[in-house]
């Protein structure tokens, strides 16, 4: 996920796409979607209330090198506009327990934050005492601070940083550990995943988690509308697996090379599977606005049906 964010930091300039309504098949799945921003991309949005439905959860990605002051200021601003915010806590850029405690205190005291996405962070080597999200959890600091919601990262198509051999064994062990922790805590927990482009591998992965006893809700990562070339570049850099073939097939059609790719088929397939399988563990959608926040927000409004935006007064 960290590789996604490092590339994402250089985007967010695209204009809104011209999207035709495609029906309400995925309205239930899109209800309660979340979206990812960073301090410097959030600065380009005058008021999030003009773009997002009320109470949309806004993740704030922490790229290595971003001052904590900028992160907290962004959280405070977006909270003031009425949105719950979920800042990233990348373990490998947090030096020690004292720094982690300071971040938690700043977010809580200055911005009223009570939820966090915990992840390793993707650096080749830790900058301090922490190398993974489990170590952050084990400090007990989030529990002591009364954080109500903790999300952890998931990788439906594998992660070579975690499992260099591609087996997925270590990733599954980590998710089992987190699911066990969730059963022993009052915090609400969920898995927020890397983006994918094809429903079948995602459904297979979600079913595998359930079979392995990992019953955490899954917030599936979805790439927002963007140029095909942009998405292919992100996908290759971030290790997207089998679902990359969706983009490769589209790239072979020269008539589609210059038109934005939108994720309606992926979402429709997931929505249809969810409707046919009550209790399916993919419960929410999390958007990576790789082609721009405005473009992604417009897509959710068209694809998910008409929803009122928060008041702007």
TrEMBL record:
InterPro entries: FAD-linked_oxidoreductase-like
Gene3D superfamilies in the cross-refs: 3.20.20.220
Keywords assigned by UniProt, alphabetized: Oxidoreductase
A molecular-function term among this protein's GO annotations: oxidoreductase activity
Protein name from the UniProt record: Methylenetetrahydrofolate reductase
Higher taxonomy: Bacteria, Pseudomonadati, Pseudomonadota, Alphaproteobacteria, Rhodobacterales
């Amino acid at each position: 996920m960290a590789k996604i964010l490092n590339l994402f930091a250089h985007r967010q300039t695209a204009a809104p796409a011209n999207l035709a309504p495609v029906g309400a098949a995925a309205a239930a799945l899109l209800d309660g979607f979340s979206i990812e921003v960073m301090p410097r991309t959030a600065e380009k949005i005058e008021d999030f209330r003009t773009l997002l439905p009320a109470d949309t959860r806004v993740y704030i990605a922490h790229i290595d090198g971003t001052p904590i002051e900028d992160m907290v200021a962004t959280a405070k601003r977006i909270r003031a506009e009425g949105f719950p915010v979920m800042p990233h806590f990348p373990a490998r850029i947090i030096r020690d327990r004292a720094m982690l405690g300071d971040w938690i205190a700043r977010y809580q005291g200055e911005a009223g934050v009570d939820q966090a996405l915990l992840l390793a962070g993707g650096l080749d080597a830790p900058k301090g005492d922490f190398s993974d999200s489990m170590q952050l959890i084990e400090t007990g600091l989030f529990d002591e601070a009364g954080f109500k919601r903790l999300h952890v990262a998931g990788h439906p198509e594998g992660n070579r940083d975690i499992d260099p051999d591609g087996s997925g064994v270590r990733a599954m062990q980590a998710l089992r550990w987190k699911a066990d922790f969730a059963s022993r805590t009052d915090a609400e927990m969920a898995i927020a995943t890397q983006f994918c482009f094809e429903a079948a591998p995602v459904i297979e992965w979600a079913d595998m988690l359930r079979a392995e006893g990992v019953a955490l809700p899954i917030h599936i990562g979805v790439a927002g509308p963007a140029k095909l070339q942009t998405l292919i570049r992100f996908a290759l850099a971030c290790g997207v697996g089998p679902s990359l073939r969706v983009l490769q097939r589209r790239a072979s059609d020269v008539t589609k090379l210059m038109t934005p790719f939108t994720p309606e088929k992926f979402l429709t397939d997931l929505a249809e599977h969810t409707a046919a399988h009550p209790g399916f563990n993919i419960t929410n959608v999390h958007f990576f606005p790789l082609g721009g926040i405005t473009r992604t927000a417009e897509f959710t409004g068209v694809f998910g049906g008409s929803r009122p935006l928060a008041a702007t007064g």
